[in-house]
Every structure is written in structure tokens, then in C-alpha cells.
Design brief:
The chain is mainly β. It is about 10% helix and about 50% strand. Strand 15 and strand 16 form a beta hairpin.
Length: about 375
């Protein structure tokens, strides 16, 4: 005999089981969250480099102008008592051809794991940016983007300098102040560390920064130091590149003003500057070029004007004044003038355009660099 209630009972039990499973999954997701995110940035640009003995120009598709294109995973697990495990895995790519960026690394933009405490701050291990890049992206009207228009052109450590093997600590914010300090056991694993096994065979780096926020005022100071190994230093294992930077912004609502000053000693953090010059590339130099006795003083003034809720215009002037010709063979004062604009189409999508002009580029007498680029950026 068939019992008429058996089938409904099975459905009821299944429904109860599914409900319990969903409730359990919801509780798990409340404790652990993983976010997939990304940016795609592509456009068309023109650039011309001109000197006494060379002249080159190009026009075509460009990428990573307003922001480097990326795909990333960001996760957090609540460990209780205000403590959480955090990780970020971020891969850079070129949408123009789909190739990986950052030297072909799988997670070349960032690969970190650490602990975050509401009381004690955040400690992270792995490949990540230095403190100057983090802080001065909030000061420069062009952030760490827009190629040669950003501050990293004349103050190299502020231009998204990523360090391998970095241990980085951020303090909690106390009365508007926040400290960050880090040490890299080997700044770039792709460089030749020399024949030995010792710690001195690594290119070690120190990065530190202090910021202060009070309403419309933001002030930041940063210090970066890189001690090259004997191979990078031409046999001088004590060679050490240093950069000091100080900057501030003040937001008047109708206009945001920015200014910075910095000094680079005994070399140069490559950034955009030397990579563009004939006879050398960023890959050749790695993150830095050592030049014992070289010194350059850098300054920047900038403005950002919110024309409307959707439109902003920004501009800057920057210069770097060297004390000798040990870096590139010349000692000319290097100036960069830039103007940009962005228009927001939606919460995720905007279009942009910028133009920049550099004179005595990379301290080379009479060398100019001109760029005009427009593009579109989508975030997800």
C-alpha cells in the first residue's frame, strides 16, 4: 500500500537540510570573505622623444594610463577580538595584447598575506608597494598614473615602486597620524644577486612613511633606502641609494592644491625617467641606478579642480635639479608640465585625457618628451 504522506515528508526533510546548509554557509561567509575585483584601462596615444642626435615618435593603442589593468583577489578572515587574517593577490596585464605585466609575474602587482588588528595595526608579508608610492599617490594630482605626468618622473620612489620580500607594518591611526615602516630582504628577485649566498648578496631596501590627516589637510613624509649588492654597486657593497620626500594637499572644495619637495642621493629610482631613454631600459637598471655622489632636488606644484560632479581637471609642474652629471652624463634641470581631465560615465566607468611635456628629460641637455593620450577605464 502506498502511503500518501511519504513523498511530502521527503521534500520537507530536504527543505530543512537545505535551509540548515544555507544558514551555515551564511555564517561562514560572515567570518570569511573573498572579493574578486579588477580594472581594464585602454586608449590611444601619441608620444615623441627628441634630442640633438635622435628623434622618435609613435602613435597607437596604449594601456594602464589612468590605472594599471589588473585582476585581483582580496580576502579577510575574522579571527576574533578585532584580529583578522588578510591577503591580496593581484595580477597585472596589458589589455592591448593580453600579456602579463611586471616582468611576467603571476601576481606581479601584489602578493601579500598578513594580520590586521583594530588595536595594533596591520602587518603584511610579500610583494607590495613602498610607503612613498602609497602616500604620494594621495598628493600628486596624477596619482601614480598617467605615465611621465606623475611625480615619479622626478621623484622616482613615489612611482609605484614594488618591492619583493617586503615586511610592511602600518600602525593604527592615532589623532590623525599613521606610521608605516618596512624592510625588504631582497628588493627584486629577478636581478642578479651575485655569486654568493650571504645576505649582502641581496639588494636590500628600507621604506618608511608618516602621514597626518585633519579635515581638508593631508601631510605626508617618506624615506626610502636601497643598499645594492656588490654586483649592482660595481664592487662597492656599501653603495646606498636614498630618497627623502615631503608633501601636502589642502582641499578648498572648489580647488585642491598640492605641493611636494624631495631629494635623491647617490643614484636614482628608475620610475619612468631612465626607461624611456635610448641606450637603457627599466629592465636593464632594475628598480634603481647607483651613482655615488649624485644628488637631485625635486619639487612639484599641482591643482585639481572639480568642474562638476562628473568632471575634474588637474595639472602639475615638477622639476628635478641635479648637482652633477654622474647619472646620465648631463646635469641639466629637468622640468615636466602636465594637464589632464577625467569624465565619469557611471560608478564604474570613466574616460580621460592628458598631455605632458618634459624638457631636459632625464637631465639630458635639450631632450624633450611629449605625450598626448586619451582612453577609457572600467572597474569591476
Amino acid at each position: 500500500m502506498t502511503l500518501p504522506f511519504r513523498k511530502p515528508v521527503k521534500k520537507t526533510l530536504l527543505a530543512v537540510a537545505l535551509t540548515a546548509a544555507c544558514a551555515g554557509a551564511g555564517a561562514a561567509h560572515a567570518e570569511t570573505a573573498v572579493t574578486l575585483y579588477g580594472i581594464i584601462d585602454i586608449g590611444v596615444g601619441y608620444e615623441r622623444i627628441r634630442g640633438d642626435s635622435f628623434h622618435a615618435s609613435r602613435i597607437g593603442e596604449v594601456h594602464g594610463v589612468a590605472s594599471g589593468s589588473r585582476v585581483g583577489l582580496r580576502g579577510v578572515e575574522d579571527l576574533g577580538n578585532g584580529l583578522a587574517a588578510v591577503f591580496t593577490l593581484e595580477s597585472g596585464f596589458a589589455p592591448t595584447d593580453g600579456e602579463r605585466q611586471q616582468g611576467g609575474r603571476l601576481f606581479g602587482r601584489q602578493a601579500t598575506l598578513g594580520l590586521n588588528s583594530t588595536q595594533w595595526g596591520r602587518l603584511e608579508f610579500g610583494r607590495q608597494i613602498n610607503m612613498a608610492s602609497e602616500l604620494f599617490s594621495l598628493i600628486d594630482p596624477f596619482g601614480t598614473s598617467y605615465n611621465a605626468a606623475n611625480l615619479g618622473t622626478t621623484l622616482g620612489a613615489t612611482n609605484t615602486m614594488r618591492l619583493d620580500n617586503l615586511v610592511l607594518y602600518h600602525s593604527p591611526v592615532v589623532s590623525g597620524f599613521q606610521l608605516g615602516v618596512g624592510y625588504s630582504f631582497n628588493a627584486d628577485d629577478t636581478l642578479d644577486d651575485g655569486p654568493g649566498f650571504a645576505t649582502a648578496d641581496n639588494n636590500r631596501a628600507v621604506t618608511a612613511g608618516l602621514s597626518y590627516t585633519n579635515g581638508p589637510l593631508f601631510v605626508a613624509a617618506a624615506y626610502d633606502s636601497l643598499r645594492g649588492n656588490a654586483a649592482a654597486a660595481g664592487g662597492q657593497s656599501s653603495a646606498r641609494l636614498r630618497e627623502y620626500s615631503l608633501g601636502a594637499t589642502y582641499d578648498f572644495d572648489v580647488v585642491k592644491v598640492a605641493a611636494s619637495v624631495g631629494q635623491t642621493l647617490d643614484g636614482w629610482y628608475v620610475g619612468q625617467t631612465l626607461a624611456i631613454m635610448p641606450g637603457g631600459s627599466e629592465q636593464d637598471f632594475g628598480y634603481f641606478k647607483l651613482a655615488d655622489g649624485f644628488r637631485a632636488t625635486s619639487t612639484m606644484l599641482g591643482l585639481t579642480v572639480p568642474v562638476s560632479n562628473a568632471t575634474a581637471v588637474f595639472t602639475s609642474w615638477q622639476r628635478a635639479a641635479p648637482n652633477n652629471s654622474k647619472l646620465t652624463g648631463d646635469d641639466k634641470i629637468f622640468n615636466v608640465y602636465a594637464l589632464g581631465a577625467t569624465y565619469t560615465l557611471s560608478k564604474r566607468t570613466n574616460v580621460y585625457a592628458y598631455a605632458s611635456y618634459g624638457h631636459n628629460y632625464a637631465f639630458r641637455d635639450g631632450v624633450t618628451d611629449t605625450a598626448v593620450i586619451t582612453g577609457i577605464r572600467h572597474q569591476f
